[in-house]
What we know:
The chain is 36% helix and 21% strand. By secondary structure, it is an alpha/beta fold. The strands form 3 sheets. A 6-stranded parallel β-sheet has the order 5-4-3-9-10-11, sandwiched between helices. Strands 7-6-8 form a 3-stranded antiparallel β-sheet, with helices on one face. The radius of gyration is 22 Å and the shape is elongated. Residues 157, 159-160, 162, 178, 180-181, 183 line the site of zinc ion.
Amino acid sequence: MLPRKVAWTTTGRGSMERLVERQSPEDDLERVVDVLARSRSLLFITGAGISADSGLPTYRGIGGLYNAEHPEEGFPIEEILSGEMLRWRPELTWKYLGQIEQAARGARFNRGHEVIAEMESCFERVWTLTQNIDGLHRQAGARNVLEIHGTLHDLICMQCRWQQTVADYSGLKMPPQCPECQAIVRPRVVLFGETLPSETVERFYGELDAGFDAVFSIGTTSVFPYIAGPVEVAHRCGWATIEINPTPTRVSHLVDIKLSMRAAEAMDAIWSRYRARRRS
Ligand SMILES: [Zn+2]
């Protein structure tokens, strides 16, 4: 955050002392509350940063979920976690899917997820577009969630119509096979080289066409065009834009308000101020 005022003063002993008065994060939080106070529809775009507050690692890769440059098998992770590798060597792709699931297993939603879920019942229209495949938004009780990269917990057969939702991968024999036709089963996630789920994409653009009063980008570096795009649309259309991320991102220059905070802390601070204002 840039200092708002920089003042130089001379102390009694003649040395110069630099006094930097920073724009208070409190001011920014109050500005977000102002936005909420005049909003009826909200869009949240979330990434790995919101799950990091639940203890999940912020990997890159699918759903921001893998970081190793050269896994032991000698393939780049983008190849291992690709649709092509899943068909060619399912045991290899499944080994890493299993590790991703293991890292997320037992994770519980945090205050960030919870506040978004609570907002669904306090505003006319609230949607969440998430890149996360951990299911924590739904676990927190949010209903209007578009999981653009799918979810680890929905398993589908690659041959027949068999499908099942599982709480975790414990008890799965790797690579898991369909109980109906014995073909390999896969999670309903978007692997490298695969297209986004068209129904989810269409639903999202339908909601975006309807417009939003405010768009929040939370815990995502916005590297994908379909994640940065809605913030650009909001900026062009004059909808309020807010970013919550401890570091600068590809959309930071576009947003009206940038909170350099972690997701759970920021959402809790915003929500408690908003509710306090409503009570007064
Ligand atoms: Zn099957």
